[in-house]
Amino acid sequence: MAKIIVLCCLIILAAFGSVNGSSKKQEVGFYELKKGDISMKFTNWGAAIVSLILPDKHGKLTDIVLGFDSTKEYQTNAPSFGALVGRVANRIGGAQFTLNGTHYKLIANDGNNTLHGGPKGFGHVVWKVKKHSNEGHTPHIVFTYYSVDGDQGFPGALLATVRYALIGNNQLSITMKAKALNKPTPVNLAQHAYWNLNGHNSGDILSNVIQIFGSQITLLDSQLIPTGKFKSVKGTPYDFLEPHPIKSKINGLANGYDINYVLDDGVGYKLKRAAVVHDPKSGRVLELSTNAPGVQFYTSNTLDIKGKGGFEYKPFAALCLETQAFPDSVNHPNFPSTIVSPGKPYKHYMLFKFSTN
């Protein structure tokens, strides 16, 4: 039986055609998709979204994703612009956890904690371009990555896949999958695009009107690690159950938003609404649906970096809506489990609908 499992793993790896450290490394490049009024650019460094261009209410085309001009800049992408982060997105407290009686110590890269999978997490590696089609009704690109047993301290070999596809009328579908090959392991993949619906170089997003379909948040300690408890958003600066401008509530916080919302429609594979964002200046609207239990709302609170065209991105220059499992789930038995086992693959869906109003 062990020989059969090893053989199956080798067959899968051969199909993916890329193993960490192998001689089949791909060059880092840019790849494009276009459908109707929407066009996008990606890089295989971190399987990242580089740009998304679509018209405003007057028909003017603008890039609404923060990022860089060159692939070299993405290889030192400290903010994780547009990246597919993992093996476990968000934070793991103390950079450690215990699974099935075995204690695992991870590589800390956020004080004493692990953030977005560690210093060489999935957002900081080269992915293989498995498929790329800019033709037909569904232009799409598929990236794959093989993570070895012990990568950043995590147990088990893992095959990760992300598929970006332009569908329907100005819609972006993102499908994230992962297979544990030989051991149970935590998995929590997230898409880390920085959105500014008025344009990546237009200033801050504080006038954006946002609605988040989560009536609770996961409470955090001083290191932004969940305590394991939940709190109602009602009557707090986190209450976006009805649409509000971000600037109308952000002054009630010390450093802006960086918090996980518990989405209201429960856990499962049924897509549910996570958030709606409207930029009054451009008229652009972003609607996000997902099957994930949570969404991290982040307002780029400490951003200070030069981006596309030499533009200086400053705090609040963009917002992130990272659908995800709850942060530090592996250390909180009362949170939905993030453990993926051989034969029980991980699936995470996001659907963005763009329009004008």
From TrEMBL:
<keyword id="KW-0732">Signal</keyword>
<feature type="signal peptide">
    <location>
        <begin position="1"/>
        <end position="21"/>
    </location>
</feature>
<feature type="active site" description="Proton donor">
    <location>
        <position position="192"/>
    </location>
</feature>
<dbReference type="InterPro" id="IPR011013">
    <property type="entry name" value="Gal_mutarotase_sf_dom"/>
</dbReference>
<protein>
    <recommendedName>
        <fullName>Aldose 1-epimerase</fullName>
        <ecNumber>5.1.3.3</ecNumber>
    </recommendedName>
</protein>
<dbReference type="InterPro" id="IPR014718">
    <property type="entry name" value="GH-type_carb-bd"/>
</dbReference>
<dbReference type="InterPro" id="IPR015443">
    <property type="entry name" value="Aldose_1-epimerase"/>
</dbReference>
<dbReference type="Pfam" id="PF01263">
    <property type="entry name" value="Aldose_epim"/>
</dbReference>
<feature type="binding site">
    <location>
        <begin position="192"/>
        <end position="194"/>
    </location>
    <ligand>
        <name>beta-D-galactose</name>
    </ligand>
</feature>
<keyword id="KW-0413">Isomerase</keyword>
<feature type="active site" description="Proton acceptor">
    <location>
        <position position="322"/>
    </location>
</feature>
<keyword id="KW-0119">Carbohydrate metabolism</keyword>
<comment type="pathway">
    <text>Carbohydrate metabolism; hexose metabolism.</text>
</comment>
<dbReference type="InterPro" id="IPR008183">
    <property type="entry name" value="Aldose_1/G6P_1-epimerase"/>
</dbReference>
<comment type="similarity">
    <text>Belongs to the aldose epimerase family.</text>
</comment>
<dbReference type="GO" id="GO:0030246">
    <property type="term" value="F:carbohydrate binding"/>
</dbReference>
<feature type="binding site">
    <location>
        <begin position="90"/>
        <end position="91"/>
    </location>
    <ligand>
        <name>beta-D-galactose</name>
    </ligand>
</feature>
<dbReference type="GO" id="GO:0033499">
    <property type="term" value="P:galactose catabolic process via UDP-galactose, Leloir pathway"/>
</dbReference>
<dbReference type="GO" id="GO:0006006">
    <property type="term" value="P:glucose metabolic process"/>
</dbReference>
<dbReference type="InterPro" id="IPR047215">
    <property type="entry name" value="Galactose_mutarotase-like"/>
</dbReference>
<dbReference type="GO" id="GO:0004034">
    <property type="term" value="F:aldose 1-epimerase activity"/>
</dbReference>
<feature type="binding site">
    <location>
        <position position="258"/>
    </location>
    <ligand>
        <name>beta-D-galactose</name>
    </ligand>
</feature>
